Amino acid sequence: MSNMLGARRRLCLLQVVLLLFAAVLLVADACLTSEYRRKLEATVEMPLDADVFRVPEGYNAPQQVHITLGDQEGTSMIVSWVTANELGSSTVMYSEASPDPEKMELCVEGTHTRYDYFNYTSGFIHHCNLTNLKYSTKYYYAMGFGHTVRSFCFTTPPMPGPDVPFKFGIIGDLGQTFDSNTTLSHYEANGGDAVLYVGDLSYADNHPLHDNTRWDTWARFVERSAAHQPWVWTAGNHELDLAPELGELAPFKPFAHRYPTPRRFAPAATPFWYSVRIASAHVVVLASYSAYGKYTPQWEWLRAELARVDRAATPWLIVLVHSPWYSSNAYHYMEGETMRVQFERWLVAAKADLVVAGHVHAYERSHRVSNVAYDIINGRCTPVRNRDAPVYVTVGDGGNIEGIADNFTQPQPGYSAFREDSFGHATLEIRNRTHAYYAWHRNQDGDNVVADGVWLTNRYWMPTDDDTS
Predict the structure, then answer these.
(1) Where in the numbering of this chain does the Purple acid phosphatase C-terminal domain appear (predicted)?
(2) How buried is residue 217: exposed, middle or buried, by Cβ count under 10 Å (0-12/13-18/19+)?
(3) Residue range(s) defining the domain that contains residue 188
């Protein structure tokens, strides 16, 4: 009798264990469309007299100051600014020792450019590359000599290495609305070391005649962050500024003049794809609106670039695009499909960790999936789980004037892990070669509240199942 009771207990225990295991599997495979509903008010652009757009005091004072990496290794920084009244000086003074411009001992002479767009003429746009910088070092810098001098500071990234911690902010489609200001304020409170920006900056082209004064206001708006830490720029569709009806036939004219990158700092260089190595990350920036078909320059470059990635030195492979490859929102549905078809198998073969996109004005995170088996005729067109595949994130939720994309398809597809039609920003905190913490922050929450978070394990060093909240 006791043997029979013991067998029954063991059977019941086994059933409980199996039920718990099934529940774990269901959670691990769960898809979540957040039930949170953002505020109902329209997305309103801040007025031109808002304090965030204020022109700095002083004659010909440098404005719209921003920095980005000047080389792949993080030992140079491109400083950019605008003088509105006259050309002035293109000189940057800088120093490790003193914030006083008169005591800065290092000096670099930069270049300047200017452009016309329909009825608009830009100010004098200056670019200056500070080279041979030390890693993990705070530098003070100043410009505007001869008129009104302004000074700022930045800290260079640490030397690239496999276990170097670093925290990225991730922002897309920011614009210059009241929601944009909330997004930027929340990011500043969360304290990243550099921003991965996935395209669509000023939304000047949403205004009559592509009002380029909105490029000026946007750059003054983000100066409070972009002058003190590097922003890694991705070109989006709102950077095209192609307007044949206005006689403007050159794509990317304002963006190309204003926002240099390591690839484009040299005269006459125009590509919008490039890479940088920051701490333990190799960041690859792709151009969704430049040619990427077979044997095009971007196609050739990416093939060579992926072969150069050294996962022993920089374990985390992060790719930035503008138009998402995986998105379950009806807005801009499948616009990134041709680039996915062209490059997805390369990223899976390279074991990329994360692909970040904007464009769709909502938030979504995928499971690790791939669709490389589909060849049009075999019918295998459903994305499948793949440990070698990246997580795909869409953060086109910065706060732009066009509003939120509140049209997710139903039902939620199996590849989608979490999605919500709210504004916000994300962060990626790399801890070492194996672990990084990814988090998305909703604007309506407190600064440090995580609305969606997941620990990511590195695809090269620890390819575990990691794509569940």
Answers:
(1) 389-451
(2) buried
(3) 162-199+272-468
